[in-house]
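Dear colleagues,

As part of the handover before I leave the project, I'm documenting each prediction I ran so the next person doesn't have to rerun anything. This entry is a single chain, and its sequence is reproduced below.
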Amino acid sequence: LMSLQPDLIHLSHLFEGHTGRTVSSIGRFDSRTPVSVVILDLAPLLCPDRYLELSPRHAEYHSHDCEQLGKSSLCLVTSDYSKQEVVAHLNLEEHSVINVSLAIEHIFQPLQIDDDSADKLCFNFGLTRSFIIAINKGGENTGILQLIRVFGLLPPQIREQHQLLLVGDFAEEVRAALRREAKSAGFVPDQLCLAG
């Protein structure tokens, strides 16, 4: 990367090293080039027992990545609240934390598909009845365990009519933990579907 002589290095996802698909560092091999980082929220740092309990490996990487943030030149956050959290808990200067507010591109819109295509899509994900979908980036597990537990508390007649579809890039150890949590919450075998 240094051979390209970049003016800036931008990390859109610092907290992904635990999946084994991404390796990143700040200042380890190049201490001169400024580095900017996107931070969506600090929930895993502030409530590790809630968000990192599925994976000790993830907790270790998250702690390491939080330490690295202090070496960044610029942190881009998605809300004023996130900015306050970053400044308060990571001891970064307020001028180096910028709220960029995120939005969805116009290309994302409802799509009309025929019944056969919809049936095939549902079949691919193991969906056989009405479902509740939750999308998660897969690593930080923000609220996923709580969602499983709450779904398990629903009245039986509602649970029997629905499945819970979790979409995310879940590591295999996280998938196993989610299945264990679903079983302990009283899910029947086909009630939890994992995609991604």
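The mean pLDDT is 80. The longest strand covers residues 130-135.

All the best with the project,
I.
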